[in-house]
Specification:
Number of helices: 19
Strand order of the largest sheet: 6-7-8-3-9-10
Helix content: 55-70%
Radius of gyration: 36 Å
Structural class: alpha/beta
CATH architecture of the domain at 346-427 and 523-601: 3-Layer(aba) Sandwich
CATH superfamily of the domain at 346-427 and 523-601: P-loop containing nucleotide triphosphate hydrolases
Oligomer: single chain
Order of helices and strands: HHHHHHHHHHEEEHEEHEHHHHEHEEEHH
Low-confidence stretches: none
Bound molecules: adenosine-5'-diphosphate, magnesium ion
Mean pLDDT: 89
Length: about 600
Amino acid sequence: MRFRDVYKNNLFMLKFVWKYYKIYIITSILISFSSILTPLADVLGPKYIIDFISQKKPFTWIVTVVILIFSIEILKSIYYSWYYKFITPRAHNKIKGGINNLLMQKAASLDLECYENADFYDKYTRALKEADIRALSVVSSTRDFLLSLVYALTLFGVIVTLDPILLLISVVSMLLSSLFGLISGKCQFKYERLLTPFEKHLNYIKRVFYEVQYSKEIRIFPISKLLFKKYDNNIDKIDSVLKTRGKKLTLLNILGDTIEFIMTIGVTMLYLAWKIYNGALTLGDFMALYIASRQFSSRLQVFFNSFTQFYEHSLYITNLKEVLDYESKIENSSDSLEILEEKITDISVDNVSFSYSEREVLHNITIKASKGEKIAIVGHNGAGKTTLIKLIIRLYDVNKGKILINNKDIKKLSVKHLRSKIGLVFQDYQLYSASIAENILLLEVKTPEDEDKVWFALKQVGLYEKVKELPNGIHTLITKEFSNEGIFLSGGEAQKLALARIYIKDYDVVILDEPSSSLDPLAEKQMYENMMDITKNKIAIFITHRLSTTVMADRIYLIDNGRVIEQGTHKELMELNGKYRRMFDAQAQFYREQAEDSLVVS
Ligand SMILES: Nc1ncnc2c1ncn2[C@@H]1O[C@H](COP(=O)(O)OP(=O)(O)O)[C@@H](O)[C@H]1O
Ligand SMILES: [Mg+2]
């Protein structure tokens, strides 16, 4: 990375902070310039006191100097307190909010394939993890950079006026110590990178122990032992990196300090003492020069260290920019602008093939669905059923073939608009730590009509009675994460809640991916009957393993290994006497055997 990039990247971040909290930048710059006062008070104050004493000046002169030093320190303290205790925490909060918001919005529009690309995903998590801290460190590094520069320049002025030769000694000492600063900064950074994968693993394990969904299994299975072991292993690995790094850094530090002491204490002190000895320097000058020269090199060290910091920030910002600059191919595609005004009446998957990365999982699939039709998709686990749905709602684009909606290529249609016409429940639906109503509407509940919609949907899925009895009704929170009054739902109830979402709006198409996997038989029957009812004039596509429900479908597609191998009505497929029939018979047989077994037992 070149110097120009480092500069540009840090400036990018400063501009970003400027946008969210201007006063933080302004006060930070002011604090840098206020540092001009410190060396004056620390260095010149004592010099004048000593000089006045040795020159036998009136005591009031000394009192004046003391009052001056005191006033400077008090003013500084007021400003620093306000800056660090009042401004900085609020700046942290605002900037954190701004940058994380930006990243979350980005996440919501990334193509799904980004999550499957380990490199990109890594970049994204790194961007998110450090975003707020980095934004602030860029400001604090800039502040320290300016602060130490102003400080050092002031000391420079003091030294030049009192003894130019000493400046030469100080500069050499400064160059040497900053060289060591750079070397150890680089070393530190190199090892920091080695630690990242281990720290990632540690964080993962910690997460398992605090997130509620793991809590049951952790208690029942011996997995916690395994995780503790992995945790300890990672701690050991980190330790071995720290050991190697520690040896190098300790040595560098001792060496750096020794050289600095030789220059500042050895050379400088001897030089100054020799000058006093020869009467060329007052006691006060000695005092001022000695303090100034020591502070000068330590300030310059801070100054040079900030370059290492800017470099580290820059590496992070490059990563952040890559994430922010990512142009999503589907969500932001400029080809997909057409708004479909009319209702969706036809979906046609035409000879479509698709692969996630290398491996093709769908091969030459052709499927049709028209208004009023109920389409069932069946097939073994991993056959490609869910993938097909993901293509229809354009979470991915097909590799070969076409998907047409009302005879228009799906790639030409506005993605947002298309999705808003399709009611969908995923196989791995999610519930959120929000109220029941919000979990169904997936929007803010604003009007009484919104509430009516929610109650209607709850009725359809058979949750009405249960919610009615809750003190907070539809405003009860799901999970107890934010309130003790929240509720936990059983697996089946949760699935019903997710299903309620499709009753909220008059969708043109309803797609359900294994919607009854957690439902009891009665609830399942009820669900399919309701579904048939509300989808009379719509397109309904459901993926199911319960072959009893396929009996009501207008058309069944049996997908096997990414290919449609049989299609037709239940009757036709039974007559075909192929794989569908074998699956159906096996399921029927299983239920019969179970029923007979239970008869024998009872
Ligand atoms: N995000 C993904 N990345 C890579 N492969 C995937 C991904 N999702 C699913 N697959 C693979 O695609 C195949 C079909 O998956 P899917 O469509 O979910 O099957 P199902 O018919 O059970 O719904 C499976 O072999 C699965 O391993
Ligand atoms: Mg699936």
